[in-house]
Amino acid sequence: MRVAQSWLTEVIQRANPGWQVTAEELDAGFVGVGLEVEDVAALGPVTGPLVVGRVLTIEQLEGFKKPIRFCTVDVGETEPRGIVCGAQNFVPDDLVIVALPGAVLPGDFRIASRSTYGRVSEGMICSASELGIGRDHSGILVLSPGAAEPGADAHAVAGLDDHVIELAVTPDRGYCLSVRGLTRELSCGWGLDFKDPADVPDPAGEQSVDEAWAVTVAPESGAMRFALRRVTGIDTQAVTPWWMKRRLLLSGIRAISPAVDVTNYVLLELGQPLHAFDTEKVRGDFVVRRAEGGETLTTLDDVVRELDPEDVVIADSTGPVSLAGVMGGASTEVSSETTDVLLEAACWDPLAVFRTSRRHKVSSEASRRFERSVDPGVTVAALDRAAALLAEITGGIVEPVLTDIGFVPERPTIRIDPELPGRVAGVTYRPGAAQFRLEQIGATVLEEPLADGKTALLVTPPTWRPDLTLPADLVEEVLRLEGLDVIPSVLPAAPSGQGLTPLQKRRRAVSRGLGYAGYVEVQPSPFMSVSMFDQWSLDADDPRRNTLKVLNPLDSERPALATTLLPGLFDVALRNVARGQRDLSIFTIGQVVLPGPETGPVEMLDVGRRPSVNEVDKLFASLPHQPIRVGVVLTGLREPAGPWGKGRVADAVDAFAAAELIANSAGVTLERRAAQYLPWHPGRCAELLVDGVVIGHAGELHPAALEAMGLPPRTCAMEMELDGLPVRENLPAPQLSVFPAVHQDVAVVVDTDTPAASVEAALREGAGSLLEEIRLFDVFTGAQIGAGRKSLAFSLRFRAPDRTLTEDEATSARDQAVATAQERVGAELRH
Q: Which of 411, 463, 691, 719 is found 20 to 30 A from 194 (Cα to Cα)?
């Protein structure tokens, strides 16, 4: 949005006579109310003699490749000046701006008397772009008749002491794409009175008694409001006054003709796009509707456009004559011969205009505003303003007829605590600040007494602020108008923390323990394909097949939430093996999803109230159980090959060791016992128990499952439910004894199917508090032991915290340990 500083100043001065502001202050004012200023550009600079001239004669020079004219121009001197010019848009008796020799135009363009095209040119007749007024360089700048006398200083006439402000207006503040919106914002920010430019009288001077034109608005068109007003008796020789041309040029819009210039001027002034029809070219009544299949429209840019059924058009009996909200049609375009104009103003659906504009690749000044919503309350006011200006410029007559179809929708009332803005900003605002600022922006504010003696504000936003729908929006308005710079930048004090929770400590300890043991943590996908369970040959009623499927999965081949961590780990392993990395020791810690009988969708809750306790309980009950687990997969070599040897292939013992490592990191004792649980090998699988409860499985995977998945033979895995481990904090920290330890070994014979962990647990319990460490160091089977029997050798370390332990005390504790093992698991001391 480009606008002249002088235009903004004039509008504000209507309610504040004598008010002035510098360009720098204007820049700061816009920034203060939250608008982004992209540029503040001074006009010119133009130095030296710049005067108003009247064209006396024009001689067309022949024999050149382009049209060249030699003009004599009265510049207020004794003799007229001869000037060579290539522009064709002026005639004798026109007032123009002349740069005399010695003048310097923008870009350090110096004017001098020179011979060219066989004539002496004593100056230059200037265009708007050559003076730095706008960007139009299509022709010479022609002033309005009577704008000044020849020889007058053109600096003042052209207003070259002005500045042009260019702003970047965000989509939610479309009302700022107008002088009306910008001056309102400045008045609010500076606490000035404001006179709305949209407060205009009826230009016909009397009440409208009939329709300006018959119109039918189809409901599916989305037109909120549609209005027409007619101006007749237009003088075809009339020209747009210089003051209007200048403002249009500075805003980046080329002046064309009075009817077109007036619609563009009102668009910039009030933010309401308008369109002018040549009434004599309209055939029949207007119909506002959707386009029909196969229809075309030649728009004002002379492009034939194929219309889409989603496009909204204004049509007469011949078909579409305007693309609603975007661009008019060429068939009803006003021309230099037009004497009867039908002005149209409407309020269209923003989304429909946006889609039409993008569909046809047309971005106009009108579509930019309609896309951001136009004030439906200013539709007729804009028509009246445009009709009055057109009649004043052209000597036309505003007919006492008006078509006005539609309505101004009521804005919803928002209840807000007047102290809420202060609480949000952390600032104590003066009493009544919220109400004052909201009334400043045009809102209607009423007070509502509350039962506790306080007062709430009932705020009805104005029609030009569709972005205000929530209390938070109103809070933002109060904060920005009170000044964002007064809000202190204070970092909130961080509350004293309690450190990590026991669960967090345990998870980190497990992660660190596996990392220190050579495992690499991975983050596999939480989604899986249920076909993997077929590769494992799971039974149809296996609980792991009860998965929860996602309605819109990221990968259609993996639509289910994983009930086990292994599928994700297998995917990672397969990807690495496919890329040549076969020696893997990977782990992950993550959630699995285990649907229960009550898991499933629930009824949509009423968002207009707080849910009841029962509703909240039902919501939580509908969620699946999501325990945290830790999984491990090993392939290839567990110990790498090198000069020291061939390396060691990972086996089931490594999977068991990973489980023991996790248990030790969590501070719990783990038991193992043989089990059959797919996809593990039935003879090389152990279930993991803590306090007699199964929390996972470990071992070598089944060869058939490995072949089906494409994993290397002898791949091992472990999965354990981390949430199944009891949380134990070893507090206070253990004390280290300074006294020497006593080491003793013991070998016991048990049945082959007796787990070593059970024997170890029995020995630990029987040894009592003097036992510091127990470790299995040998397993032996053979004829000396007997069929179905095995020998387990343990190393025991005893130590007393307060004295030097004697050998007899250690022996007694060892014998008691063997006795307990004999009682619990049938162990016999091997001699």
A: 411
pLDDT band at 728 (very low <50, low <70, confident <90, very high): confident
DSSP states of 55-70 as a string? EEEEEEE-SSSS-EEE
Same domain flag for 257 and 368:
yes
Strand-pairing partners, residue 778, are 793
Spell out the alpha helix ranges (H) of 517-597. Answer: 531-535, 566-578
Quick: pLDDT tens for 226-246. Answer: 999 999 999 998 989 989 999
Q: What angle do CA 67, 70, 74 make, to 5 degrees?
A: 140
**Which domain range does residue 275 map to?**
215-406
Q: By the 8 A CB rule, do 586 and 718 touch?
A: no
With CA atoms as reference, report the closest residue to 179 among 100, 95, 244, 259: 244
Residue 731 has pLDDT above 70, yes or no: no
Residue (of 492, 447, 457, 454) closest to 477 by Cα position: 457
Residue 662 lies in a domain: yes
Residue 583 placed within a domain: yes
Residue 572 has pLDDT above 90, yes or no: yes
Instruction: Report the distance separating Cα 568 and Cα 336, nearest Å.
Output: 76
671-674, strands of its sheet edge to edge: 520-521, 584-591, 628-635, 716-721, 693-701, 680-690, 671-674
Structure tokens at 464: 């030009």
pLDDT tens string 465-506: 999 999 999 999 999 999 988 898 888 788 887 888 889 999
% residues pLDDT > 90 (the chain): 75
Cα-Cα-Cα-Cα torsion 614, 617, 623, 625, nearest 10 degrees, comes to: -150
Assign 578 to helix, strand or coil: helix
Q: How far apart are CA 349 and CA 463, in angstroms?
A: 15
Enter the tokens of residue 344: 């149209």
Structure confidence by residue, pLDDT tens digits, 326-349? 999 999 999 989 999 999 999 999
Nearest CA among 165, 219, 487, 222 for reference residue 346 = 222
Q: Tokens at residue 815, please?
A: 């014998």
Arithmetic mean of pLDDT, 138-144: 85
Which of these, 701, 696, 690, lies nearest to 651 by C-alpha position?
701
HEC string of 413-439 equals: CEEECCCHHHHHHCCCCCCCHHHHHHH
Residue ranges in 14-111 assigned as alpha helix (H): 23-32
Q: Between helices 379-394 and 258-270, what is the axis angle to 10°? A: 140
Q: Same structural domain for residues 510 and 651?
A: yes
In a shared domain, residues 237 and 355: yes
Asked whether residue 619 is assigned to any structural domain, the reply reads no
Domain assignment present for 54:
yes
Q: Are residues 554 and 656 in the same domain?
A: yes
- Burial track 14-38 (b if 16+ CB lie within 10 A, e otherwise): eebeeeebeeeebbebbebbbbeee
d(CA 672, CA 753): 12
CA–CA–CA angle 262, 268, 273 (5° rounding): 70
Residue 671 φ then ψ, to 5°: -115, 155
Cβ-contact 233, 259 below 8 angstroms? no
Return d(Cα 584, Cα 725) in angstroms, integer: 26
This model's pTM is above 0.85: no
Domain count, the chain: 6
663 and 544 in one domain? yes
CATH of the domain at 272: 3.50.40.10
